[in-house]
């Protein structure tokens, strides 16, 4: 049994995302090496590690923006579909929030949030709008609904991006450095939304160097280096007694900033 399996077993959660012995190359570069990771339902897993260690690639394989060379990835017990309608459904089940907000520039904030549910989930326009307005309220930008993305601050745009992902009613949310493009004063408003999402029971995989978020909201911290998961531990244990030299070295660098 691997460390991550035992972790999930000990918390008694139903496995929602499972990666087993996943390998991935970009040409000669081995970017994911025998990656095993289990994320239980409702669990919040923070992924950290040096630049180029494979964190974004890991996230991208989970909604099949990247294919894998070998191994197995399942979502809610089912292997990721390769193409077609099933793949579109998978993408809807896996919400993704990137560093660059990726909103549709020519659509209003509200339309950004209603588009997916109408097109991919078959919701009526009225239903989608009601849900969008609820979600925009929840992330604190209800008063911006009729504006265009460029008229919003970065923090507001990122909160809209979170609302847009949530509108699809995903089973899991992936965040890839959601605050690293933001001015410092906007970071907390986004982290607060993520913390409340975590508290609401959403299953989340979050690549971030915001260690305050990891301490407050994470159930586990996963440390990656050179495409491998070197450590998978509870935040308290990871921050106070990291087991691996690479984790110690990494922590000493980011915590002394
Ligand atoms: N599409 C691609 N083609 C070729 N190489 C790639 C591609 N995407 C990523 N890589 C390489 O794979 C490795 C892992 O990249 P990845 O973006 O997953 O790292 P990361 O941990 O997210 O880094 P960062 O902290 O800088 O975001 C890096 O060496 C990167 O240059
Ligand atoms: Mg990255």
From TrEMBL:
Transmembrane segments: none
Any one GO molecular function term: ATPase-coupled polar amino acid-transporter activity
Membrane-protein topology: Peripheral membrane protein
Database matches in CDD domains: ABC_HisP_GlnQ
Matching InterPro entries: AAA+_ATPase, ABC_ATPase_HisP-typ, ABC_transporter-like_ATP-bd, ABC_transporter-like_CS, MetN_ABC_transporter-like, P-loop_NTPase
Cellular-component GO terms for this entry: plasma membrane
Claim: ATP-binding is one of the keywords in the record: yes
Gene3D superfamilies: P-loop containing nucleotide triphosphate hydrolases
Compartment(s) where it occurs, according to its Swiss-Prot or TrEMBL record: Cell membrane
Domain of life: Bacteria
Main location: membrane
ATP-binding recorded as keyword: yes
Domain ABC transporter: 17-251
EC number of this enzyme: 7.4.2.1
Family annotation (SUPFAM superfamilies): P-loop containing nucleoside triphosphate hydrolases (SSF52540)
Keywords recorded for this protein, A-Z: Amino-acid transport, ATP-binding, Cell membrane, Membrane, Nucleotide-binding, Transport
Substrates-to-products reaction catalysed: a polar amino acid(out) + ATP + H2O = a polar amino acid(in) + ADP + phosphate + H(+)
SMART domains: AAA
Similarity section: Belongs to the ABC transporter superfamily.
Name of the protein this chain belongs to: ABC-type polar-amino-acid transporter
Organism: Kineococcus xinjiangensis
Lineage: Bacteria, Bacillati, Actinomycetota, Actinomycetes, Kineosporiales
């Amino acid at each position: 049994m691997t460390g991550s399996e035992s972790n999930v077993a000990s918390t008694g959660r139903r496995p929602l995302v499972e990666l087993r012995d996943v390998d991935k190359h970009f040409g000669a570069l081995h970017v994911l090496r025998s990656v095993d990771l289990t994320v239980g339902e409702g669990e919040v897993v923070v992924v950290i590690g040096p630049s180029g260690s494979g964190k974004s690639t890991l996230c991208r394989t989970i909604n099949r923006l990247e294919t894998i060379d070998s191994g197995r990835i399942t979502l809610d017990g089912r292997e990721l579909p390769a193409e077609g309608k099933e793949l579109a459904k998978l993408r809807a089940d896996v919400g993704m929030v990137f560093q660059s907000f990726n909103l549709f520039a020519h659509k209003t904030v509200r339309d950004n949030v209603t588009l997916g549910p109408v097109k991919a989930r078959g919701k009526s326009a009225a239903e989608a709008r009601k849900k969008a307005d609820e979600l925009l309220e929840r992330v604190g930008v209800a008063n911006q609904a009729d504006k265009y993305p460029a008229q919003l601050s970065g923090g507001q745009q990122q909160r809209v991006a979170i609302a847009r992902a949530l509108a699809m009613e995903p089973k899991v949310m992936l965040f890839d450095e959601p605050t690293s493009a933001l001015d410092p004063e906007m970071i907390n408003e986004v982290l607060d939304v993520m913390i409340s999402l975590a508290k609401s029971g959403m299953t989340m995989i979050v690549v971030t160097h915001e260690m305050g978020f990891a301490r407050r909201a994470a159930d586990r911290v996963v440390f990656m280096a050179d495409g491998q998961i070197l450590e998978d531990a509870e935040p308290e244990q990871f921050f106070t007694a990291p087991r691996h030299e690479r984790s110690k070295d990494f922590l000493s660098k980011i915590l002394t900033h």
